[in-house]
Amino acid sequence: MADQEKNLEPPQDQPDQEQFLLQQAQDNRQVFDVENQQQIQKDGNGFKMEDMNNEEESRMMKRDIIKKRKKREKKEKLISARRLKRLLKKKPVDKIRLVYQAYFFIVSITVLTLSILSYRDQTVYEGDYQQFIDNVKSYVIDDIQFTYTNKNCKTQFGSEYSSLYEYEWPGTRIGCDCSKGFNFSTLTDYNIDAFFSESFMLGRICSQELLSKNCNTVNEQQPKIFNSWNDGSYGRPFVLCARRKIGIDLQSNSSNCQSDHKVCGTGDNVFCVPTDMSCPISEIGFTTNSNYQNIKSKNNTNIGDIFDLGAGFYFYYIKNTSSLPIVEFRVTEGDKVCRRNLDQNISPNRIDYPLMLSRRKQCENTDQLFQIVHSIDEEQFYLSNNVIYLSDKLPYFNIDTKYNWTIHAKTFIPWAPQCRGDLFDSVLQEGTTLHYVYISLRVQLGVTIAYFIVIGLIFNIVGTMTACNFAWSCMATRPESQYNYIFLIEIGFKILLQITEIIVIIVSFALIDGKRKIIKQVNDDGCVSDPVSDYFFTNLESDLTKFAWSYNLANLVIFAVTLILDLIIIKHSINQGHHHGAKKHHEKIEHQELDVGSNGESGNQQEVKSDLKLQVKTEALQTPI
After folding, report:
1. Rounded distance between C-alpha atoms, residue 462 and residue 494, angstroms
2. Which domain holds residue 214?
3. Membrane-spanning residues where (predicted)?
4. Do both 532 and 510 map to the same domain?
5. Is the whole model's pTM more than 0.70, yes or no?
6. Which pLDDT tens digit goes with each residue over 485-518?
7. Are residues 527 and 476 in the same domain?
8. Which helix (H) or strand (E) holds 30?
9. How far is residue 224's CA from residue 393's CA, in Å, rounded to a whole number?
10. Which of 49, 167, 535, 539 could make an SS bond with 331 (beta carbons 3.0 to 4.6 A apart)?
11. Half-sphere exposure of residue 390, counting CA atoms within 13 Å on the CB side?
12. Half-sphere exposure of 41 (CA within 13 A, CB side)
């Protein structure tokens, strides 16, 4: 027993086994830590070496992911487009929508036609009304003088004087003449423009190469003002200078007649002026009779005057006759002034010089209120204005004595006395705002053209194809939205354009209504007797009433019917479910096919998961330790 207990006690000279194991573990740990640190250091160095490889690998993996994603999206879109086509093939054609699109195609053409006619059929233009205003608001003339040397009337006689007439010669453009002495007289209306375009090279000077081929540069000629005249027999040129009485015109006649006044003229041609001035000049002319109407013997400038211009050639003026005062003067080739007075006339069977910046044409209609005062041949006209040299400066510029130039004078446009006053003031006021009517017509035409292009063509084609179940690839992933989006966009654009045009039409109505009533009163009361002015006011009333008013009213009726039809088709679309896609009895089949398509695309979903895993792995590699 004692021996057993003795054996159980640990020997005194041997170390404790637990202490030994603990010490051994600590030693091993130290060794492990050293090795681990060395391994970590090696791994760190290895990671540094592999870092660049990992970055390159991650970039490659990203590119692969993007490529796979694009490929998958393209494949999904293709599958969706095919599925959409299969679904649409099973749906019936929307006949109501087709009728709707056909109607709007007809409407857009009709509205465009009406707007074009409303704009095109205007026979009266702003210039016609302005011509009338310029005439009746011209100041009367109470004195005329002449000068030989100084062509500037203001410096010669004072600021109240101005040239009796001023003809603006338009000038010519530059060119390079390579015609080599072509016979200009053989040209006709059909080939003259082609000849000058090819042989003169309009708008450019001759190059050295062309100069070596005997071509010559034709220098441009600046516009010039002609205001001189002569007796037609190579006499001394002179300038007539007229003094106008500021503020005395046809518009002021009514107020002048209501106070102390002097009466000039007779009957409908009565004209009132203040008592402190003489009657205006109502007749001018040239004569070789020094005793013409005994003007000289009367020796009273309040009645008239006569001047000796040399070589027995006299100029005279007369006041207080039975006609209205003369206020306008024109010089033109030929014996007529165009109905539109600013147009320049040319003799029959004559072609104007093609290098002119503004070329003349023979008048189709003339202003009979202009009366001839005097006539000289073309050579005399160019000589008196000291521009005969133009025939040498400009190749083929022909100054021919067989053509005549004439001075014309025009009185105030005859306006009945009972129509003067408030009505006359209203006519002038409406004339100054007539351009707003033409602006509204131009805006309306522009909106109508946009309506035709957007609604009549673009959306009509798109809507028709949609109603026939055409599959739009841009909506392949959302087939249920195809009808809805296209229809709403079409309706939105159409309503926007219609509202815009309705606003323009309403504004046009407001502008036209007041004008047409005043012009109608002028015609009904017989206020004007001049043929040109009568033509002008008659056609202006017709333009404002028959064309602009009627066409705009027709457009409003069309838009009202269109609005009702819009409400009907919107209700139809809601009831039939077109704004959500296919008809209701096809929705169940559509959902079933969509489910089948989703199952068929499970492989694509697996590709998505694989791409996600690959992306996570890439991000893990990029994360620093």
Report:
1. 14
2. 173-220
3. 98-119, 449-472, 484-512, 549-570
4. yes
5. no
6. 677 777 777 778 778 878 877 887 777 878 888 9
7. yes
8. helix 17-89
9. 15
10. 167
11. 25
12. 6
